[in-house]
Specification:
Strand content: 35-45%
Low-confidence stretches: 1-18
Mean pLDDT: 84
Helix content: 10-25%
Order of helices and strands: HEEEEEEEE
Length: 125
């Protein structure tokens, strides 16, 4: 019995490494405008604010979900993905006027996108 369990454990361990290496992908979600009037030079108090708790859904080319991340208090998120082409679809956030646009991106073995920044609209005009 122990031999059978050992064989199963070895086989399962081998299966998990067959998926290949993964690479970090991340970004930041912000919301703006914060002030109704933009000034030159820009007022630092009017800079876009981080969006905590925003859900980022990542789908592969076939449309199936491969990862999901929730932004931290500073608006940052991060996942690990194998090489491939994906679409990041930010989900609606309560209190913000519009959902951010989807972003199509590619992860390669030589490097992944540095930042996939997402911009939500506050509705302030």
């Amino acid at each position: 019995m122990i031999f059978v369990l050992l064989v199963i454990a070895v086989l399962l361990g081998g299966c998990s490494s067959a998926s290949g290496p993964t690479y970090p992908v991340g970004g930041r979600a912000v919301a703006g405008p914060i002030c109704p009037v933009e000034r030159i030079p820009p007022n630092p108090a009017c800079a876009p604010r981080p969006v905590p708790g925003a859900v980022m859904v990542i789908t592969a080319d076939g449309g199936h979900e491969v990862a999901r991340a929730t932004t931290a208090t500073d608006g940052r998120w991060r996942v690990e993905l194998p090489a491939g082409t994906y679409t990041l679809t930010p989900q609606p956030v309560s209190g913000l006027m519009a959902t951010a646009r989807p972003i199509r991106f590619t992860v390669t073995a030589t490097g992944s996108p540095a930042n996939l920044d997402v911009a939500y609209d506050t509705g302030i005009r």
